[in-house]
Amino acid sequence: MKKLLNTLFVTQPDVYLSLDGDNVVLLKEKEKLGRLPLHNLESIVAFGYTGASPALMGYCAKQDISITFMTMNGSFLARVIGKSKGNVVLRKSQYRISDDETLSAEVAKNFIVGKIFNNKWIVERMTRDYALRVDIEKFKEVSTQLSNIIQEVRKTKDLDNLRGWEGQAAICYNKIFDQMILQQKGYFYFHMRSRRPPLDNVNAMLSFAYTLLANDVASALEAVGLDAYVGFLHRDRPGRASLALDVMEELRGVYADKFVLSLINRKVINEGDFSQKENGAVIMTEEARRKFLGAWQKKKQEKITHPYLGEKITWGLVPYAQSLLLARYIRGDLDEYPVFLWK
């Protein structure tokens, strides 16, 4: 299993990244802010209009260290990676499946089954752990609805129908998401998902978490030789890492949603950590992003037992494990893609 290394998050704007020997140097207006050895890093994520020297980008590309550039509010801009390590047979098999909507649906429905199953168990955990604070009857009703939708998804052989059932499951799950917010209710609430732009504090955090997760999944897919931009459920669109969005479906709730809820309910993030733009967009402050990213790195270090592999790995390696299993399925080494099922 791959070793989980560190990610360097650069949250200050206008920081220039340069190379000095085997180290990355952080410069702001020619003042040195820091110097870190690159052998401890697996990726660099820079926020704001940060520059990076060609020498650093070349070194990182050779060492399989990805560099991702994002806006200050966490929107993806660009990603620098090295040569593809995938063998041509694996990628050609991936492309053949993607070109056939029936075959794509067979793979895609596993991603959606995993997503709905994991969301169902988030709901079940809430009824068990917070029976006096949530509407048990409503939560049980949603859990039953999600179970029924899973059965329909398993029978689906069409991508459009699959998207329809996924949408129904999302409606069921989202209508009780606000009840999972147990603290700071005056400042953190969820009425509906708003993406571009996020219109409240919770949506701002969810969008940030999904962007980080998508980046981690894309890196994992490229590491095992798959093309992160050619998906099965999410169809081809220039600049979109469609396969990364596919694989992260099963991890959205159990990885990103639960993480965001924990930051709110443990009061790690509070009402002072956000600002609102003139167009209504809500963004996290620089200090909030620091707290968020620090907690994200700690989350990635937590260990779990992988439900299919049966071995202990860190949360940060789950995207890599799923990417590896997907590659094995596409090669024909597995009869079915083993979706990540959490309880």
UniProtKB/TrEMBL annotation:
Q: Which UniProt keywords apply?
A: Antiviral defense, DNA-binding, Endonuclease, Hydrolase, Magnesium, Manganese, Metal-binding, Nuclease
Q: What is this protein called?
A: CRISPR-associated endonuclease Cas1
Q: Which residues bind Mn(2+)?
A: E166, H234, E249
The domain of life is: Bacteria
Enzyme Commission identifier(s): 3.1.-.-
Described purpose of this protein according to its UniProt entry:
CRISPR (clustered regularly interspaced short palindromic repeat), is an adaptive immune system that provides protection against mobile genetic elements (viruses, transposable elements and conjugative plasmids). CRISPR clusters contain spacers, sequences complementary to antecedent mobile elements, and target invading nucleic acids. CRISPR clusters are transcribed and processed into CRISPR RNA (crRNA). Acts as a dsDNA endonuclease. Involved in the integration of spacer DNA into the CRISPR cassette.
Xref: CDD domains: Cas1_I-C
Species = Virgibacillus halodenitrificans
Self-association and partners: Homodimer, forms a heterotetramer with a Cas2 homodimer.
Which family, according to UniProt?
Belongs to the CRISPR-associated endonuclease Cas1 family.
Segment forming the signal sequence:
none
Protein's UniProt keywords contain Cell division: no
Please name one Pfam family that this protein belongs to. Cas_Cas1
Recorded hits in InterPro entries, A to Z, give: Cas1, CRISPR-assoc_Cas1, CRISPR-assoc_Cas1_C, CRISPR-assoc_Cas1_DVULG, CRISPR-assoc_Cas1_N
KW Iron (keyword) present:
no
